[in-house]
Specification:
4 domains; Alpha-Beta Plaits; DHBP synthase; 23 helices; globular; alpha/beta; Nucleotidyltransferase, domain 5
Length: 763
């Protein structure tokens, strides 16, 4: 007889881990105990050697499906003649910390219960168990126990208590467990009238949607605005209300067979839709898709998700068969944070956005948007927006990290906190362009510091002096006296992917950082960069030749200004027949010419993203962009898949020249070559350029070093698939992000790992 003590860290709270340990110990007739601590789970088992070894094997090979064991340590202890195996109250050591489970999609068992008339949870919209339900969005502090969540306001009834305390029940120690008698309840408000409660609230909301109205519906991480996706009048109203003229809306369908009526769904996409995270998945439309074009203007893809909460399932039960697809977009004005509370201010905003409000009295502690993903040509998941279902799942890093706060970028902001072997990258915060987003950013930093018990020793930020995240970091550094480390944007992009792939070390790597904007060490705006870098620093080896951005952000919103500036910088005249020339008002054209002649309010850029925008304008595809990336997305969408020709780029010393490519495009336009062919030739030209750059760098260093792709431009599937395949055919080892986005959502992680290296060298 012997005893063994275990310490397990990882995603081991809120995923049914203690009940799993209890049941496994009982199976092998072991005595002892298990409890949550602030940095994981602690287990003591006593019994025969063979039984303990069997217990150990199950721990390592068959943990609960939502658990993630990052580290398991154990040692032998003296045998104690315990009488039973128990789940003990949680320990709370103030200096300890651990990861927290993301929110989890409703499981099949709970779904069956809410649709079973004879079950006591029939039609109860807050049903959950140890395998599903809210987690991160309701946690106030650790360890993960009911008193530390927003469920503390709902004492369990006797029936729920019996389930909670029964080791054989799947609600054994399920912290958010609730039922109609003791848990949260729905309320429906309309036009300031008194509320309608319970089932009547759900009925009222569904009837409103059937009548063509827009409903604000409170979910796991905030409110959605929902309407019938087939109702053109409702769609037009929704775009007007949100001030969102063209950006695609997300859709929720009753089930996958419904999605398959409108989109292609391969096995990988089906698995992603049905995963515990239940993200939005971008899917190719079928020929003849009857979803109104106003849902996603000019797109050939739709973003679908399936119901991931009991409330969503019940909505579709009542809406079907009349309505099987809903628009489910965040309840906010464009670029503002999602509304998630029930204050008078929140109700006022929701009343302006919707015709009615379906809410509930379970507090959302952390607002969090839906995640957005896709499956690439290599059958791998691409993260586009990392939020619900994935955050705050940490990234494991190879080495012990200092406690660092990385403030992140300006657009698609995330921040990052590090401690131990973990990097906690926040959920998507958004674009830091208004006071509400900046306020949300500061609140979330404070919350993450609390739940992960991080006390920063170092602060990292972007080089850009005008970013709000930089301003925040500077102020915090001044107030605390903590060192501030400024990190170049594109180096952070590449470092992020290297660290995610456990390759951020002394070995050099080629980094192709292609995006829209990033402040360079020379004060210009970079974005078409070929870097040679490792954990000690980076060298800018090649970059797109600079061209001016007249008016800065104004040029970004008006691709025709980018196109005209590109023509000007490369010596081409503004012919009246060109699309950007015919798109600009005469007075604006005169002012723009003066701006460029005298370089007034012009910022020079080497941005690949801006080059894509300019080409989109040259081809007459997009002259004014209502959302970020619109011009480039539409350029990709028109590309002829059968065209294999390409425009060659010229390289002079460290500059990638643009004149020959522009000249070839203008020649093809004059000859009446279809824009679909020109788009394809441009894409293939960039693909060939990437190979040439990488071959040159490999030959220069005389080493076969890995190549990293990062930056928002790589969300272009033609470019990503073409470059990856071509590089691999030429014996390059291509490293890509899998857990984090290609876009700026990864930058904070890169800032953190670079700052950690610098901090260590300061010692």
């Amino acid at each position: 007889m012997l005893g063994r003590h275990y310490q397990i860290t990882g995603i081991v709270q809120g995923v049914g881990f203690r009940p799993f340990v209890y049941q496994t110990a009982i199976k092998y007739h072991l005595k002892g105990d298990v409890c949550n601590s602030a940095n994981g789970v602690i287990i003591n088992v006593f019994g025969p050697q063979r039984s303990i070894d069997s217990f150990h094997e199950i721990l390592q090979t068959a943990p609960p499906p939502r658990a993630r064991i990052d580290h398991l340590s154990f040692f032998e202890v003296p045998f104690q003649n315990e009488k039973e195996f128990r789940i003990l109250p949680s320990q709370n050591i103030e200096t300890d910390f651990l990861p927290v489970s993301p929110d989890i999609c409703i499981c099949e068992a709970c779904q069956n219960e809410i649709l079973d008339f004879n079950n006591r949870r029939f039609h109860y919209p807050f049903t959950n168990c140890t395998n599903c339900g809210p987690r991160f969005s309701i946690i106030e502090r650790i360890p993960y126990d009911r008193p530390n969540t927003s469920m503390k306001r709902f004492p369990m009834c006797s029936s729920c208590t019996v389930e909670y305390e029964n080791p054989l029940d799947r609600r054994f120690h399920a912290q958010p467990v609730a039922c109609r008698d003791c848990g949260p309840q729905l309320t429906y408000f309309r036009n300031g009238s008194d509320g309608i409660f319970g089932d009547h609230a759900l009925i009222a909301a569904t009837e409103s949607i059937k009548d063509g109205e827009i409903m604000a519906i409170k979910g796991i991480g905030g409110f959605h605005l929902a309407c019938d996706a087939m109702n053109e009048t409702a769609l037009k109203r929704l775009r007007g209300i949100k001030h969102r003229s063209n950006k695609p809306f997300a859709l929720m369908a009753k089930d996958i067979p419904t999605i398959q009526k409108y989109c292609m769904v391969n096995p990988d996409e089906r698995a992603l839709l049905q995963s515990a995270a239940a993200p939005i998945v971008l899917l190719k439309m079928k020929v003849g898709c009857i979803i109104p074009e106003s849902v996603a203007p000019t797109q050939n893809e739709l973003g679908f998700m399936i119901p991931y909460t009991p409330l969503h399932i019940l909505l579709f039960e009542m809406l079907s068969p009349e309505i099987e697809v809903l628009v489910m977009t965040s309840a906010n004005y464009s670029e503002e944070p999602i509304v998630f509370g029930d204050s008078e201010k929140d109700r006022t905003i929701l009343a302006q956005l919707s015709d009615g409000i379906l809410t509930h009295n379970r507090q959302i502690v952390t607002r969090i948007d839906d995640s957005v993903t896709r499956i690439d040509q290599d059958h791998q998941r691409i993260m586009i927006r990392r939020a619900r279902g994935y955050a705050p799942d940490p990234i494991l890093v190879q080495r012990q990290m200092n406690q660092i706060l990385a403030a992140g970028p300006e657009l698609k902001n995330t921040f990052c906190l590090t401690r131990g072997n973990y990097a906690f990258i926040s959920h998507h915060i958004g674009d830091m362009e208004n006071a509400e987003t900046f306020q949300a950013y500061q609140e979330e930093i404070a919350h993450y510091k609390t739940i992960f018990r991080v006390t920063p020793e170092v602060i990292a930020c972007d080089l850009h002096p005008n970013y709000l995240s930089t301003t925040y970091a500077e102020k915090l550094s001044e107030e605390t006296g903590l060192p501030l480390i400024r990190i170049q944007h594109h180096y952070a992009h590449i470092a992020s992917v290297l660290a995610e792939n456990h390759r951020f070390n002394a070995e050099s790597a080629i980094g192709l950082a292609f995006d829209g904007t990033g402040y360079g060490t020379d004060g210009f705006i970079w974005g078409g960069e070929a870097l040679l870098c490792n954990n000690a620093g980076f060298e800018r080896v090649y970059h797109l030749d600079n061209f001016p951005l007249p008016g800065g952000d104004t040029a970004i919103r008006k691709p025709y200004r980018q196109a005209l500036a590109l023509l000007y910088a490369n010596g081409f005249s503004w012919e009246d027949s060109l699309f950007p020339v015919s798109s600009i008002p005469d007075r604006e054209k005169e002012l723009l010419k003066t701006q460029l002649d005298h370089h007034l309010n012009c910022v020079d850029t080497s941005s690949m993203g801006r080059l894509f925008d300019a080409i989109s304008s040259l081809l007459g595809i997009c002259q004014e962009a209502s959302y970020e990336g619109q011009a480039a997305i539409e350029l990709e969408n028109v590309a002829d898949p059968d065209c294999t020709e390409y425009y060659p780029f010229e390289i002079l010393e460290d500059k990638i020249l643009l004149k020959s490519v522009i000249g070839n495009i203008l020649d093809d336009l004059r000859q009446g070559i279809p824009k679909s062919v020109i788009s394809a030739k441009f894409h293939h030209g960039v693909i060939q350029l990437c190979l040439e750059i990488c071959v040159r760098i490999r030959e220069a260093v005389n080493l076969n070093i890995p190549t990293v792709l990062s930056g928002g431009v790589w969300q272009n599937q033609i470019l990503l698939g073409g470059v990856r395949d071509l590089l691999e055919k030429n014996s390059f080892n291509v490293l890509l992000p899998r857990q984090l986005p290609y876009n700026d959502g990864c930058v904070s992680f890169g800032q953190a790992v670079i700052a950690n290296e610098i901090k260590d060298r300061m010692r």
